[in-house]
From TrEMBL:
<dbReference type="Pfam" id="PF00162">
    <property type="entry name" value="PGK"/>
</dbReference>
<keyword id="KW-0418">Kinase</keyword>
<comment type="pathway">
    <text>Carbohydrate degradation; glycolysis; pyruvate from D-glyceraldehyde 3-phosphate: step 2/5.</text>
</comment>
<feature type="binding site">
    <location>
        <position position="43"/>
    </location>
    <ligand>
        <name>(2R)-3-phosphoglycerate</name>
    </ligand>
</feature>
<protein>
    <recommendedName>
        <fullName>Phosphoglycerate kinase</fullName>
        <ecNumber>2.7.2.3</ecNumber>
    </recommendedName>
</protein>
<feature type="binding site">
    <location>
        <begin position="66"/>
        <end position="69"/>
    </location>
    <ligand>
        <name>substrate</name>
    </ligand>
</feature>
<dbReference type="InterPro" id="IPR036043">
    <property type="entry name" value="Phosphoglycerate_kinase_sf"/>
</dbReference>
<feature type="binding site">
    <location>
        <position position="330"/>
    </location>
    <ligand>
        <name>ATP</name>
    </ligand>
</feature>
<feature type="binding site">
    <location>
        <position position="43"/>
    </location>
    <ligand>
        <name>substrate</name>
    </ligand>
</feature>
<dbReference type="GO" id="GO:0005524">
    <property type="term" value="F:ATP binding"/>
</dbReference>
<keyword id="KW-0324">Glycolysis</keyword>
<keyword id="KW-0963">Cytoplasm</keyword>
<comment type="similarity">
    <text>Belongs to the phosphoglycerate kinase family.</text>
</comment>
<keyword id="KW-0067">ATP-binding</keyword>
<feature type="binding site">
    <location>
        <begin position="27"/>
        <end position="29"/>
    </location>
    <ligand>
        <name>substrate</name>
    </ligand>
</feature>
<dbReference type="GO" id="GO:0043531">
    <property type="term" value="F:ADP binding"/>
</dbReference>
<feature type="binding site">
    <location>
        <position position="158"/>
    </location>
    <ligand>
        <name>substrate</name>
    </ligand>
</feature>
Length: 403
């Protein structure tokens, strides 16, 4: 297989962190409500094992993260103070939030730390040098610590200063969350229990071509849903009504279908779909066969027959990876297909891995996240892994010795 499966990287368990100053790149890029409060603290909770591990060993824990997209300037509502407060509550110890991530005040705060102390640097993206992977900025960040820990799976597909640049200056290892994410994806890509199915959906097939190409040779069963089903239908000459079809991707999609047929992979497209005039709440929805989509309507979800068929096909699987919702699940009228696939996976006796920002969001909204083997905290990073592409932030870490 031409694509890479990452080699095992050193983690904080493989090195001596006791009493050390440790720079931890976390992913505190949490969704915010309109009033600026934290809408979902999953990513903060996910960082706790690494922070606790370090505190228990009297390390001095210097946390850093980006939040949203401040475009290289200070944006008051994107300060990390609220994140520090939430983290402090969850951790049960003080977390000091600093006003910047580099500079003399940061240096003196770090110099004053005792073993077990935790502080949080200010939003890295207040500095344009973070996204530019600026070497001087990376060096300044690195100068704060003796060890670098990447625990930001969700940002590890980015070549940014706090993800890649710092690792050139310090011993660089994975945190426990990053290691868990890598283990989950590596296992399904390398050695899945079979039968192994992939459920791929979402808005556009162009976002998922890399994933489809990498996954088809690995799976026994491939289920397609979401808006991208329209491009699959069009590639087979069905009418797609007013749905968006990516005409420049028809050949790619035919290639995926041909590859599946050649390898004996069972490829299922929706047999029925929910269609509507618009993709908004309140739009009148009805179910039609996929071969009879009215001209003026768009595909909004998989139909109930498809949800049952997918459910039956998945029930016999021992590993399922799911990326991309089956419909416009944000609108209650079009959420049923996604909900039923989520329920099927929740009941599956096997390994279930959820990758993709919207897919994880859907599973969480349905209250089923705890029923899955692994719900990834990374959207773009999960897609990168499923596409078999290296994550720059992981490549930069030290390799573990072979056992
Ligand atoms: P993920 O973030 O899990 O990788 P994507 O970003 O690929 O998923 O897709 C998520 C989006 O796809 C959702 O916002 C959802 O509304 C949209 N979507 C799903 N089905 C359709 C459809 N039939 N038409 C338009 N958009 C859709
Ligand atoms: Mg997405």
């Amino acid at each position: 297989m031409q694509n890479v499966i990452p080699r095992r990287k050193k983690t904080i368990r493989d090195i001596d962190v006791r009493g050390k100053r440790v720079l931890v790149r976390a992913d505190f890029n949490v969704p915010l409500n309109d009033d600026g409060s934290i809408a979902d603290d999953t990513r903060i909770r996910a960082s706790l094992p690494t922070i606790r591990y370090l505190c228990e060993r009297d390390a001095r824990v210097i946390l850093c993260s980006h939040l949203d997209r401040p475009q290289g300037v200070v944006v008051e509502r994107l300060r990390l103070t609220l994140v520090a407060n939430r983290l402090s509550m969850l951790l049960g110890r003080p977390v000091l939030a600093l006003q910047d991530c580099i500079g003399p005040e940061v240096e003196s705060a770090v110099a004053g730390m005792s073993g077990g102390d935790v502080l949080l640097l200010e939003n890295l993206r207040f500095h344009p040098e973070e996204r530019a992977n600026d070497p001087a900025f990376a060096e300044q960040l690195a100068s704060l610590a003796e060890i670098y820990v990447n625990d930001a799976f969700g940002a590890s597909h980015r070549v940014h200063a706090s993800i890649v640049g710092v690792s050139e200056h310090l011993p660089a290892v994975a945190g426990l969350l990053l290691a868990k994410e890598l283990d989950a994806f590596t296992r399904i890509l390398k050695d899945p229990d079979r039968p192994f199915a992939a459920v791929i959906g979402g808005a556009k097939v162009s976002d998922k071509l890399g994933v489809l190409e990498n996954i088809v040779p690995r799976v026994d069963l491939l289920l397609i849903g979401g808006g991208m089903a329209a491009t699959f239908f069009a590639s087979r000459g069905y009418g797609t009504g007013a749905s968006t079809v990516e005409n420049d991707r028809l050949d790619d999609v035919r290639g995926i279908s041909a590859k599946a047929a050649e390898l004996g992979v069972r490829l299922l497209l929706p047999g029925d779909v929910v269609v509507a005039e618009r993709l908004d709440a309140g739009a009148r929805a009805r179910v039609v066969p996929a071969t009879a989509i009215p001209d003026d309507l768009v595909i909004a979800d998989i139909g109930p027959g498809t949800a049952s068929e997918f459910g039956q096909a998945l029930a016999g699987c021992r590993t399922v990876v799911w990326n991309g919702p089956m419909g416009v699940f944000e609108v209650p009228e079009f959420a049923e297909g996604t909900r039923r696939v989520a329920a099927t996976l929740a009941n599956l006796h096997g390994t279930t891995v959820i990758g993709g920002g919207s897919t994880a969001d859907a599973v969480t909204r349905f209250g089923l996240a705890d029923e899955m083997t692994h719900v990834s905290t990374g959207g773009g990073a999960a897609l990168t892994m499923l596409a078999g592409k290296p994550l720059p932030g992981v490549e930069a870490l030290e390799e573990a010795e072979e056992p």
